[in-house]
Amino acid sequence: MIRRPGAPIGRPTGLRAAWGAAAGTLRETLRPQGALRARNASAWLPPAHELLPAMRRFADADEVDLVVVGCGAGGAVLTQRLARAGWRVACLEAGPFWDPGRDWVSDEEGSRGLHWTGPRVVDGPDPVPLGANNSGRGVGGSMVHFAGYAPRLHPSDLRTRTADGVGADWPLDYADLAPRYARLEQELPVAGQYWPWGAPHPYPHAPHPVGGNGQVMLEGCAALGIEARVGPVAIVNGRFGARPHCVYRGFCLQGCTVGAKASPLNTHVPDALAHGAEIRADAMATEVVTDRGRATGVRYVRGGREHLQRARAVALACYAIESPRLLLNSGLCNEHDQVGRYVMVQGAPQVAGRFDDEIRMYKAPPPEVTSEQFYETDPARPYRRGFSVQTVSPLPVVFARHLAEAGHWGAGLRERMRGYPYWATLGALCEYLPQAGNRVTLDAETDAYGLPVARFTHGRCANDRLVTEAATRTMADILTAAGARELVAVERYAHLVGGCRMADRPEHGVVDADLRTFAVPNLLVTDGSVLPTQGAANPALTIMALADRAAARLVAGSRSGLPLARSPR
Q: Within 13 A of 33's CA, how many CA atoms are on the CB side?
């Protein structure tokens, strides 16, 4: 039965054995975490904004070892890892350096400043709205306003061309990412049940208690024989260093003022600052400067003035729209017309169901419960690859927009919104296939800096549409099996990846397996734009894992005397 109003949030139904194992995992996490603190002490340091007065500051004329453009998932991890290795790192971030207690509010409309809302042009058969749910602005990037969902990719995601005849094979193996996934799951940290899909693995923290929305999905899945699990979410379950426990207030997408939800602002930036990195906020990069085939710095605008930060190496971590745009505006790495191509957006349809009992879907992390049962290619289905299903919890403003998109206006809209506590909502992540024509180019329109803005052209193929239809039907079936008496479905898009993809040869992509551009050996791209395929998973953890790997390769190379950057002190 669905939890009744006022009933305590309890443990997942039928999961006693898993909870016993998870309790043991939790006891382990409460012990002194010397190994974790030795590689990243962010959770035990003061908040990042409190470290700013003592932050090291480089002059533009200083030749730093590395300048990173963008302080999101990829840029912050790269900055932290290399600062710990003794590199002199300056990270340029176009947005502000957030003080969560001062700058963030528990309000949907008041949180728009977290999104990148600069001018962009979208077109194509299926244009993708950009901003509110797929790009970020400020230190921490889009993870500041992501839901906290932090799954791994499956091994099959890296071999879709070989295994399924679609997409592309990666120039590295899952084994290259697995230990990095595990390390980052400890650092964020990630809470969840043992994961049976893909490459089965545990999580370092026990799953969170399940609220009404999660109970709906668990019960609907159980009735249909669909396997479901609690987690994985990058949200503290129990105290973690100086970071507090989640308080289940439902504002994960508005920036977590509590500090329980992970973002680079609290997971990697404090340690980077403590080890001598500079995070230079409000610095809009406009050009990567090169000399005789090597990157020598980054031109940027700050405070209305143009600057040039000199560097021995450069890494772009601006995400799937801005990294290709910066390369194109710099005239770099496009000898084979690969920059900006194969941009992928995940299909993210949602289905809401109204119940007789109060659900209060906002009283828990939005992604409480997940199923990846439909993730892999099934020869019995008319499409390749697949989708995952999870709980989502749109707050009232977004939920009202969804109802309006579904055709409910006036009295019908008001009546449904009065019943907001009785609705449960599920969302899918659908793997859309990479297509060369889905790309970022430069438009004739210019921005406030006089630079051509990005034009994103997008269209769905027949396989994309079939996957979306299957995901929508599955979510409707789950809600109906759980007792929903009215359904509302909407189509939407989520995460963007691709545009500077990894490949084995420059004719097929922009960067190699170490994320170094083929054209400029000391210029890297370390964000989601390098993904050749996207799976049916949130990309944040994979972006971090790839940046971790790239950092390790840089450090190893410098110690071997490679000329990419000077050896650490």
A: 22
